[in-house]
Design brief:
Layout: H1 4-19, H2 26-41, H3 50-66, E1 90-92, E2 101-103, H4 106-120, E3 127-133, E4 136-143, E5 146-152, E6 158-160, H5 163-166, E7 183-193, H6 196-208, H7 217-225, H8 230-235, E8 239-250, H9 263-272, E9 283-285, H10 288-301, E10 309-316, H11 319-325, E11 335-339, E12 344-356, E13 361-373, E14 376-382, H12 386-391, E15 399-403, E16 411-415, E17 449-450, H13 457-468, H14 480-488, H15 503-508, H16 514-527, H17 532-538, H18 546-555, H19 567-571, H20 578-587, H21 591-602, H22 611-614, E18 623-627, H23 635-644, E19 648-649, E20 659-662, H24 668-674, E21 680-683, H25 684-696
Parallel strand pairs: 2-11, 18-19, 18-20, 20-21
Antiparallel strand pairs: 1-6, 3-9, 3-10, 4-5, 4-7, 7-8, 10-11, 12-13, 12-15, 13-14, 13-17, 15-16
Bound molecules: zinc ion.
Length: about 700
């Protein structure tokens, strides 16, 4: 979209505007902001900090506030909806949005190819294959370079006008250079999606507000399109892939960009216009066998993608040939969807168990008739809380649709009320703890019922299980089953008891040979030296997850520093809010917890922040990223090596990156990094050399 010279010029203007705000002129400022939006949301390669972007954005708002007549529809400020959508008007598509025929195996594809070749009277046809994004379809119209309308798919003939909501999606430009390409009006199609990361983050947010999580990224995306308040849409961090040009009105006497003669070319065209099109993901192939091979590769690789796809779309590449092939009454004859195996299934909700967590929260867990989805058998799914049960309309004995999206935890999508026989029963929530019989309490601000007895055996077992878990102290040979067993036998009563276990008695238990006792002993012993952030996380302080634990550990020298820290001091730490700060202070003033910490210290656990002292700092200020499969090191070990020397791990390629370490089968990150001259690309072996040479120097 932007060439090198343009990028350099825009960067220079950016710097100039930041240094001398008085030199800002409105027209150029809009261009600069549009450029940085593109870099951030489409290319994923930010060239300025969020703070710098915000300064320029505020400058724009100030100029526009002083003279509202200068606000143009393509101004970056116009993304922020300031009015609610009252209702959504129904509008016609310029060209109907047809659904594609589905195929599920190689035979279907071969059949499709044979029919297409016969009807075109050709020996071979070139196809363009691209991911089938699992989101919500949209259609956009741009006229005289401006986005004038966005609508839902609707019934394919008419959709709903959702322009205000679509403007919240930053990877959709408000203005594109159409006139320069000979086009007056264009209708394009695409899919609004939520990345897996955005989906997880959003669900985390819902959970922290005691709201029920959403079932899958697709529902989250499609539900967003028709929201009344555009600000809520903005909060969901939606993204959009644009992959189809359905209509073009040329400017009389001008030549339309020749890229628009093939489907693959139109993906390039859309990319050049500033859209996120599957330009890099597409494959243009001349044999159906290549399509079939690509389908097989994509089916196994789908979990690696940052977003959900549910198949591939195969289109005849030549647009003139598409026209010639035409359509049946239902489907175009020039395209077919190849669908991956479904990850949804129906099963029966047989009964509900109530589990008590380490904070006393009582969670209903649906026990299902076991069913296989995407290679995994699912027999139990958390159904969170009472409100969730009401919202999903769940009854005992119901047939339910469940879904497992990628590496996301399976969820119940909804019950199928039409299959009810009348024998279904209401799910009864207990009034007392199913383990210790204490009356359950529900605070008005919360959705969950809690057992408030801190000596509740279920809570103790869960707290110990959390303490030893993989991301906490990582005591490998002490699983939940063993913890329960030791607890019931009176061998383990609380967390410090892990370090005073009577191994002689354990050795006499059934199933415990000398070897397993030795393994257990050594993994317990090793855990004493775990870094401080793991211990902080392991303590199970409410609202303190792994990231927060790392932040806290990096700002203190000794665990006991936290007994003297104030909420105000904690609020200065990155990403720590009032709720978290108050929970931390409360924890470190609780005599029971202080006693436990005292015991753990006496037992010899590491309570000091050693990493930042031990850092030799040879990589301080340098940013690293690993891509592809490493053959000699585990990814997590390699990252730890960087961090131990003061370096940082970035999550994506940007101009801030100093080193990209490339393993086998590296993909798009490598391609991206090659375009930024300042990034040094090295092999795993070179990386090991770099780290080792530094430690000897
Ligand atoms: Zn209890």
């Amino acid at each position: 979209m932007y060439d090198k010279a343009q990028i350099q010029a825009l960067q220079q203007t950016t710097k100039q505007f930041l240094a001398t705000p008085l030199s800002i002129d409105l027209t150029t400022l809009k261009k600069v902001l549009q450029f940085h939006e593109y870099q951030y949301y489409v290319v994923n390669e930010s060239l300025i900090s969020d703070y710098e972007y915000d300064q320029l954005y505020q400058a724009l708002l100030a100029i526009e506030a002083s003279d509202p007549s200068c606000i143009t529809p393509d101004s970056p400020s116009q993304r922020v909806g300031n009015s609610l959508n009252s209702n959504f008007e129904t509008v016609p598509h310029l060209v109907p949005m047809l659904s594609l025929e589905n195929s599920y195996n190689a035979e279907d594809l071969i059949d499709f190819d044979r029919k297409a070749r016969e009807s075109a009277n050709l020996d071979a046809i070139t196809y363009c294959v691209e991911p089938k994004f699992d989101g919500a379809s949209i259609s956009l119209i741009y006229e005289n370079d401006l986005l004038i309308r966005a609508c839902t798919r609707g019934d394919g003939v008419e959709g709903e006008d959702i322009t205000n909501n679509i403007k919240q999606i930053r990877s959709i430009p408000l203005q594109i250079p159409l006139a320069a390409n000979g086009i007056q009006q264009i209708e394009i199609r695409g899919e609004v999606i939520m990345t897996k990361k955005a989906f997880d983050d959003f669900n985390e947010k819902l959970k922290s507000k005691n709201q029920s999580p959403l079932a899958n990224p697709r529902n989250a995306a499609s539900g967003s399109l028709r929201m009344k308040d555009p600000k809520e849409v903005a909060e969901r961090n939606l993204d959009a892939f644009i992959y189809h040009v359905s209509y073009i009105l040329p400017i009389p006497g001008k030549t339309v960009n020749p890229l628009l003669k093939t489907h693959g070319g139109s993906l390039d065209f859309l990319w050049n216009m500033g859209f996120r099109s599957p330009q890099k993901e597409k494959q243009v192939v001349t044999k159906m066998q290549d399509v079939i091979d690509y389908c097989a590769i994509a089916a196994t690789g789908r979990d690696e993608l940052p977003y959900e796809i549910d198949g591939l779309v195969v289109k005849v590449n030549d647009l003139a040939l598409q026209e010639k092939l035409g359509m049946t009454s239902h489907h175009p004859r020039w395209a077919i969807a190849y669908k991956f195996k479904a990850r949804q299934a129906t099963t029966v909700l047989e009964h509900v168990e109530f589990q008590v967590g380490r904070t006393g929260a009582v969670t209903p867990v649906a026990k299902l008739k076991p069913v296989a989805i995407g290679g995994v058998t699912v027999s139990s799914i958390s159904i969170h809380n009472e409100e969730y049960i009401i919202e999903k309309d769940l009854l005992l004995g119901d047939t339910v649709i469940i879904e497992r999206a990628g590496d996301v935890i399976p969820q119940i999508v909804h019950s199928i009320a039409s299959l009810r026989t009348g024998n279904e029963k209401k799910i009864q929530f207990p009034t007392h703890c199913p383990v210790c019989a204490t009356a359950l309490v529900k605070e008005s601000t919360e959705a969950v019922w809690r057992c408030t007895n801190i000596n509740c055996s279920a809570q103790i077992v869960e707290r110990i299980a959390h303490f030893v878990s993989k991301d906490a102290m990582d005591i490998k040979n002490l699983g939940e089953a063993n913890i329960k067993k030791f607890f019931e036998l009176g061998l383990l009563k609380a967390i410090p008891g892990i370090y005073t276990l009577d191994f002689e008695k354990i050795g006499q238990l059934e199933g415990f040979g000398q070897k397993s006792v030795d393994n257990l002993t050594s993994s317990i012993e090793v855990s004493k030296q775990q870094p401080l952030h793991r211990l902080i996380y392991a303590l199970g302080i409410r609202f303190v997850g792994e990231t927060t634990a790392k932040t806290i550990a990096s700002r203190i020298n000794h665990l006991l520093d936290l007994t003297r820290i104030t909420e105000e001091q904690l609020l200065e730490f990155e990403d720590i809010g009032v709720k978290v700060a108050s929970s931390i202070v409360q924890f470190f003033h609780d005599p029971n917890q202080l006693n436990m910490i005292e015991s753990l210290m006496q037992l010899g656990l590491n309570v000091e922040q050693t990493t930042h002292q031990a850092t030799d700092g040879s990589l301080t200020g340098l940013n690293f990223l690993f891509t592809g499969t490493l053959t000699q090191l585990k990814r997590s070990d390699a990252e730890a090596m960087v961090e131990a020397k003061g370096g940082h791990i970035l999550s994506g390629v940007s101009s801030k990156l100093n080193y990209l370490i490339v393993g086998e089968d590296a993909g798009s990150k490598l391609e991206k990094a090659k375009k930024i001259a300042s990034i040094k690309i090295m092999t795993e072996a070179e990386f090991i050399d770099l780290v080792n040479s530094d430690s000897t120097s």
